[in-house]
Amino acid sequence: MNSFGRIFKVTIFGESHGESVGLNIDGCPAGLPLTVEDFLVDIERRKGGTQKGTTPRKEDDLPIFKSGVFNNKTTGAPLTILFENKNTRSGDYEKQRAVPRPGHADFVAHQKFGGNEDYRGGGHFSGRLTVALVAAGVIAKKLLGSATVTANILEIGGEKDLEKGLQNAIDHKDSIGGIVECRVNGLPAGLGEPFFDSAESLLSHAVFAIPAIRGIEFGTGFAAARMYGSEHNDAIEDMTGKTRTNHAGGIVGGITNGNEIVFRIAVKPTSSTPKDQQTLNWESGEIENFSVKGRHDLCIALRVPVVLEAVTAMVLADLLLLEQRIKRLI
Amino acid sequence: MNSFGRIFKVTIFGESHGESVGLNIDGCPAGLPLTVEDFLVDIERRKGGTQKGTTPRKEDDLPIFKSGVFNNKTTGAPLTILFENKNTRSGDYEKQRAVPRPGHADFVAHQKFGGNEDYRGGGHFSGRLTVALVAAGVIAKKLLGSATVTANILEIGGEKDLEKGLQNAIDHKDSIGGIVECRVNGLPAGLGEPFFDSAESLLSHAVFAIPAIRGIEFGTGFAAARMYGSEHNDAIEDMTGKTRTNHAGGIVGGITNGNEIVFRIAVKPTSSTPKDQQTLNWESGEIENFSVKGRHDLCIALRVPVVLEAVTAMVLADLLLLEQRIKRLI
Amino acid sequence: MNSFGRIFKVTIFGESHGESVGLNIDGCPAGLPLTVEDFLVDIERRKGGTQKGTTPRKEDDLPIFKSGVFNNKTTGAPLTILFENKNTRSGDYEKQRAVPRPGHADFVAHQKFGGNEDYRGGGHFSGRLTVALVAAGVIAKKLLGSATVTANILEIGGEKDLEKGLQNAIDHKDSIGGIVECRVNGLPAGLGEPFFDSAESLLSHAVFAIPAIRGIEFGTGFAAARMYGSEHNDAIEDMTGKTRTNHAGGIVGGITNGNEIVFRIAVKPTSSTPKDQQTLNWESGEIENFSVKGRHDLCIALRVPVVLEAVTAMVLADLLLLEQRIKRLI
Amino acid sequence: MNSFGRIFKVTIFGESHGESVGLNIDGCPAGLPLTVEDFLVDIERRKGGTQKGTTPRKEDDLPIFKSGVFNNKTTGAPLTILFENKNTRSGDYEKQRAVPRPGHADFVAHQKFGGNEDYRGGGHFSGRLTVALVAAGVIAKKLLGSATVTANILEIGGEKDLEKGLQNAIDHKDSIGGIVECRVNGLPAGLGEPFFDSAESLLSHAVFAIPAIRGIEFGTGFAAARMYGSEHNDAIEDMTGKTRTNHAGGIVGGITNGNEIVFRIAVKPTSSTPKDQQTLNWESGEIENFSVKGRHDLCIALRVPVVLEAVTAMVLADLLLLEQRIKRLI
Predict the structure, then answer these.
(1) Of residues D1 and B135, which shows the higher confidence score?
(2) Confidence of residue A56 (pLDDT cuts 50, 70, 90)
(3) Residue B248 CA, distance from chain mean position
(4) How far is CA C150 from CA A280, C179, C214, C261, C310, in A?
(5) CA distance B318 to chain D (A)
(6) Which chain D residues contact residue C271 at CB under 8 A?
(7) Which biological pathway (chains A, B, C, D) (predicted)?
(8) Other beta carbons within 10 Å of B75
(9) Domains plus CATH for chain B?
(10) Which chains contact D through at least 3 pairs of Cβ atoms less than 8 Å apart?
């Protein structure tokens, strides 16, 4: 349930204020060069703290290899990586135990796990676990070879001028969301399957594993619902499958067609807003006023691009490993 | 790869112009009453042919139980259902073998399967296979008990007046897309998992198994990216988890929260448009003009609601079966 | 639950006295030549009827391709094959509904499926379903290329002279078991994984899917428990990994080592014996005398070799497809 | 590939001379009490060192909870446990890099992973990883409630007097194997599935994940192949399914029948024998004499019972969790 992938299978684990968060990858091919340094850029991109609107919480966030790496290469055995939680202040959360934070998983976690969940800072539901996704992405990107996965923020709070969108939120003393786009180039045609394991199915499955995502659209996306077929269809121009336009976003019939893969996702505003809110106190059964304590991002979308790249690379590396074997035996 | 579900596992198979299409369900509980009559309404809803804009092709489409049903009940053994293909006119397609239809899977199928694919009428990629999804949905809905899954068309070609949207397409001699919304009521809180098996992950995975879907959004969806956190957060109002608003669409932290589940999908315009188009002829290597032969829907979105309900019910029945066992042992 | 395989995934379905039994293979590579004729030899080997000790029930048992085959080749889409049940005499079983046959699954099926199971002739538990295993094996063997999988009966009722063993059973008016050995040649080293997906784990998993199997041993097997290490270890003789002896049966550390794979299985005596027996009548709650009606094999082991080859080939084809992709990407 | 289980899914990882070995359990129900103390007895049983014939290597082997445990209970989130490797002497192994040890996985690991494997002390193939299996077993046993899983050694080197068998090995300066039996009491009828997920399939799958196992037999096992049907069949005696005899070992048609589950396994002699042996040097291509360095068990079978109990409990806990949900929905 906390795993993803058929060949390159990633499991993530850990809690926001527990000892550590981490990941296990089962099925990573042997012989892939891998060092701590490989992770630094993407982990830094995820951290925030240097941008307006991101939380000042900092972790060293150096990956600790516990298994599967030997002499700076993957061994082919299961790979386990830990990130220690050093900078936790649980006291902030203890006192709010009976007050589920609006927009957070506190209420559903309590329902689902019968009160046994680690509730400190969101526990296992915390955005902290995205560091494990980013780490999986670092490895997955290596498996993609020369193919590139690049995500960028398109808008913040409805503004294409991102500084302006963020300043709006600061001025309103409120949190804000955004739109992030991902583009993949250099992959072969033929990845994905018709129906249940369509490339869109797998990509969206992985994307909605990122907290705070509310929508995804491929190629022209929702706008396609307002186009005529003759406008939307992409004319094939040559034997490589290159199309004149790319309304399909690089995926037709669930299968990559060799053109650029393009999709966009909607990130909701950070649930922890500086504004006062109301919520239930499940001990008293009363509605009460609620204000957020602790350190939080004004706009979680700012941290999303590197996480989006990571889950995208995970899906595509898995599909590439699967497709490798299809053509061989016969 | 053509299967979905952990407990209630559905496999679909078949080709548009082969002998039959069908499905296998492994993991359906024993003792569920099931007769041919149970399928008639939803299969009729999928058929089209009575509405403007849907194809005149008709199949009797009566389910044939090949295994897993005895004395009008499920036995607990794998359930296999066939739908025979009676009304096929392969000749329409044979002559276009070298000309991949724009917007269709012809090109990618050829790339992926090395020319071995059954290319007649889209073969395994055909929308014909959605009859198998609908059949799985009929059974899944039964497992949901009193919970309801209802999908409706919100707009056609950008028009909320659906007749008008369709008439636009007819007037333009072109195909058109639409937006479909799904609402689920009566399910308990607690379904889904954090991260990889979030309810949104599983629902979107299944939804993108439906041909022609280009986007999905939950609750407020893409609009959430333009809201402030204080607007978007849903205040919890009582001990059942009922929220004052439902911007989250009934899912928080990947888990259902007991409120109505709401999501919308974008359906692209039918790839087979009456308008002339251009595409590659992969034998000659030349671009040539192309016009669609055969029977086709002007607006495939008209057929989508019952299919959307089906895949939604499949996901939720599976989650319900999974959740059943969580609470029992301890 | 009724599926096996990670890439070459086989699902079997059907009941002894239902309409049909069959199988679905998801993940069979495209382009594999496949005709009805390919199945005839192995299906004939399974049938019995020509040998002393096997049941006179005969089915035409011609495979009917319902999906996934086009122009006499696999398409890469899910492959469905049916075998119709033509020669059923349900009346034999109806009257024994309340009397679970000793050694058969009648009692456990009733417990597990709450009385909803198809009880006629063992229903889904019937040995009839091994025809679906044999069919999967025909396809799997093709995927193994020049590698060979050969199973032979080593003894019947403790006798290496098989005719004599069988005659003993006939003379005693009783059923009898046997030992069957399987040998695989021509496979590369490197198939299987350490621990959970060891080659022995997967082979034994598949082997115990055959009804009536009570044990399996690899290489020297149980006798290894009585050897010294210096006797049991196989000295490696050359760079190909060829060993001087083959006590390991071709598998070390869960991985094939390139030598012949050898294992043996124990087949219990047919549960349906001509001898009178006692069992419970669950309506009366009384023990009563019981004698078998219908057509049955005296020695089911006679039919096992081709089924054993089939499940062995399934496992190894899957491992070969998996291993193909491991070496490629890097 | 390094995971097992459908609901209670266990992944093991680590290397003999790496930083640690460990496990991840995904799907453990929330609210199970769990402390370090719970592990001590079974880990002590596995250690050896106090018995004649077991290696003097000692580890503290205290489990370190890295995720999934909070306030001494499972949270329902993925559970990760590490065991640190403190007592490693890699130097023993470095010099033998080019000389694959007979009976060990050195050769196949090199073939499979292209020389990237961690070869020190067997790396990921080491028996050291069975500590992770034992830990999974501790948790699985808790899920079984009042049901008991007990494994015992039946013979050592062919001797039922175990001391004598071991002394034989010591006297011969050689290693030796053994037979271990496992018995399970207190489980309900109905666990397991017909065919691919038969209780025997799953148990044998898990059992062959233990290094050095060469065979498994259920109930009467191989001896069943020499019995008549009227002898082997177990007469059902009452409405609970209790049988007069238990030749079936508690499993019929792949399903538990409520009687005691009984099976035996063959453990080969420890590959690392004090006796001189021959093997290939793959650098020189020459056969050379070889003698074992380092610390090793004379009879690995002595450590197997607690590991066998562990994998057995894992399988049965998973089947119990699966079966829970079958009966509920309808």
Answers:
(1) B135
(2) low
(3) 22
(4) 69, 14, 20, 10, 10
(5) 11
(6) 229, 233
(7) Metabolic intermediate biosynthesis; chorismate biosynthesis; chorismate from D-erythrose 4-phosphate and phosphoenolpyruvate: step 7/7
(8) 28
(9) 90-326 (3.60.150.10)
(10) A, B, C
So what's the pLDDT on residue C86? 84
The structure tokens listed for C172 are 């005693």
* Nearest of A172, C116, C65, C178 to residue B32 by alpha carbon: C116
Q: Please state, as a whole number, how many other Cβ atoms lie within 10 Å of the Cβ of residue B28.
A: 30
How much is the average pLDDT of C220-239? 96
Contact: A201, B201; criterion CB under 8 Å: no
Q: Chain D closest CA to C31's CA: distance in Å?
A: 27
Please say whether the dihedral angle defined by the alpha carbons of residues A272, A274, A278 and A284, taken in this order, is positive or negative.
positive
Angle, nearest 10°, between helix axes C37-47 and C304-326?
140
CB C104 within 8 A of CB C122: yes
Q: Report the distance separating Cα A179 and Cα B224, nearest Å.
A: 10
The answer to whether the beta carbons of residues A210 and A308 sit under 8 Å apart is yes
Half-sphere exposure of A172 (CA within 13 A, CB side): 19
CA distance A203 to A312: 6
pLDDT band at B93 (very low <50, low <70, confident <90, very high): low
- Which of these, B220, B238, B240, lies nearest to B229 by C-alpha position? B220
pLDDT at D56 over 60: no
Whether D24 and A11 lie within 8 Å, measured CB to CB = yes
In the chain, the amino acid numbered B134 is: V
Q: Would you call D117 and A24 a contact, using CB atoms and an 8 Å cutoff? A: no
- The answer to whether the beta carbons of residues C24 and B13 sit under 8 Å apart is yes
Mapped onto helix, strand or coil, the DSSP state of residue A129 is helix
And the tokens for B236?
Answer: 């919890």
Residue A123 to chain B, least CA–CA distance (Å): 11
pLDDT-derived band of residue A33, with 50, 70 and 90 as boundaries? very high
Q: Shortest CA distance to B32 belongs to which of B148, B142, B187, B144?
A: B142
What does the block give as tokens for C89? 């005499």
β-pairing, D79-84 vs D64-67, is antiparallel
> What per-residue confidence (pLDDT) applies to B326?
47
Using CA atoms, how far apart are residues A102 and A114, in angstroms rounded to an integer?
19
Buried b (16+ CB within 10 A) or exposed e, B120-143: bbbbbbbbbbbbbbbbbbbbbbbb
**Mutant choice from C228, C263, C283, C296 vs D, greatest count of D C-beta within 10 A:** C228
- Judge whether C208 and D200 are in contact, CB under 8 Å: yes
Angstrom distance (rounded) from CA B266 to CA A222: 5
ipTM for this model? 0.96
Q: Go through chain C and tell me how many residues it has.
A: 330
More confident residue, D180 or B49: D180
User: What average pLDDT score do residues D276-289 get?
Assistant: 90
Please provide the DSSP assignment of D226-291 as one string: GSBHHHHSPPB-STT--BSS-TTTTEETTEE-SSPEEEEEEEPPPSS-SS-EEEEETTTTEEEEE-
Q: Residue C252 above 50 pLDDT?
A: yes
Q: Among all residues of chain D, which has the CA nearest to that of C5?
A: D196
Dist. CA B88–CA B202, nearest whole Å: 34
- For the stretch B142-172, pLDDT in tens is 999 999 999 999 999 999 999 999 999 999 9
CB C309 within 8 A of CB C144: no
Which of the pair, C285 or C203, is modelled with greater confidence? C203
User: pLDDT band for position B327 (50/70/90)?
Assistant: very low
Residue A50 has what pLDDT? Answer: 56
Residue A301 · residue A52 · CB < 8 Å: no
The angle at the Cα of B305, spanning B302 to B309, to the nearest 5 degrees, equals 165
Instruction: For residue range C182-205, list pLDDT tens digits in order.
Output: 999 999 999 999 999 999 999 999
